[in-house]
TrEMBL record:
Hydrolase in keyword set: yes
PANTHER family: HYDROLASE, PUTATIVE (AFU_ORTHOLOGUE AFUA_7G05090)-RELATED (PTHR36845)
Database matches in InterPro entries: 6-hairpin_glycosidase_sf, 6hp_glycosidase-like_sf, UG_Glycosaminoglycan_Hydrolase
Keywords linked to the UniProt accession: Hydrolase
UniProt superkingdom: Eukaryota
Organism: Bionectria ochroleuca
Record-given protein name: Unsaturated glucuronyl hydrolase
Family (UniProt): Belongs to the glycosyl hydrolase 88 family.
Amino acid sequence: MSGLQAITNIYASGTASVGKIRLQTDPMGARQKEPLDELFSENIAAKIIRTAQKHILDNNPPSQYPHIVPQNGQDVGQYLSKGIDFWTCGFFPGSIYSLLERAIKYPNRLRVTGVELKSLRQALESLGKTWSDPIHGESRLTNTHDLGFIMMTHMKPRWEFFHDEKALATIITAANSLYTRYNSKVGAIRCWDELVWTNAPHIRGMDENFIVIIDSLCNLDLLFYAAAHSGSSHLSDAARHHAHTLIRTHLREEPSVCRPGYSGMLYSTGHVVSFCPKTGRVKEKRTAQGFDEHSTWSRGQAWAILGYAQTYVWTNDETFLGVACGLAEYFLLRMEMAPSRVEIPMANGTTSGRYVPMWDFDAPIGTDGSLLRDTSAGTAAANGMLILSQALTRLGRCDMGKRYLKAALTIVEDTISHSLSSERAKLVIKENGDIGGIDELEGSTFEAVLKNATVSNNALGYAQIADHGLVYADYYLIEFGTQLLRLGLA
């Protein structure tokens, strides 16, 4: 029985909080590794700790944060950074805190050798605080919608694990900063002040344009969380209105397609909508990072799955649950419909890659066999489907809960099989007694856990940033493993 089958089979009894990943053994009793083992491997902890220690040198306190790892070129294998005011700054400290949660709550599931758990825990706690502390100051930003991404990944665990009152205060401050971008006429939060991503005619002028992107759905969690802790219902009201508005403006019904076992509507997504801020009228629709305005950018679809799943959990509004399911079904359908050449032969006679999504579901696949994927889309979508599986099981819809759990695990297993960096790392005790990370094979370095992520490949974009390691692809992979532990599934 595979690890995936072992987990999904527990849903037959209608309970979602029992069962473990079961590891296969060969006839001689030796343990055979499965892809899901990698979620809890020493390799991940070693890479995160090594990056945290290396990139703090001459950057303490941090003002530059890990972003992408090129797969070729001058900086191959090394993290390139973005400033603290960039929207991805929270993901790296988020990865540290996700691993710290494992060290605190699930020490028996850590697969590390040669180091003491206490030392590992202390290293993660110290590094987490070092990388998280400077981000407190970003909570007052009012020129971005990305404050959920920036804050929740690490400030939330600081509050929940260490009762860090400053972290909670920062979350609430950030939520109120985000609320300043809400427009009741539009019923949404302004995302970008201007659209300047591409060489196409820009959308400029905040008095005449109000830009909202599909990614924004994942920042609503910040508003709901802050509202619950502060009693400020206007924050959660704005989040709910925003989510309803985007159903109308960013989601596209797909009535001509269906999937066995699912009777609801399927939805694809657009990326960018510009509204009139005075009337709320939709002025135009575009894409900034996808193939074109009519295509389905895979990470945009993933953001929508995750964002609507989170919104359902906060509101219990089944409108959001149905939309999240329809989005998930379309995401799965498009991966299943991809041509056979997305499947790459493996040494063991199987294939991988079917469930590692293309960067845009409608972009042409190169006739030369080149396949441009986005592992961050897959890992983000898998986290959303894991939330859906739990929500549906709590409602007694156990078959559907099992369906999305199996889908999430399939995506993650295939992502690991296809895109896990072969350049591995291991933990060591350094001369000063601290824990560090080194290459498992000397001179073979790739600082990210996963490869094959794509930030953007729009032909009109100022830069095509494709096929590399990416900090949020790794974060959502790590968080997926931690969520399995929280649910008692690993």
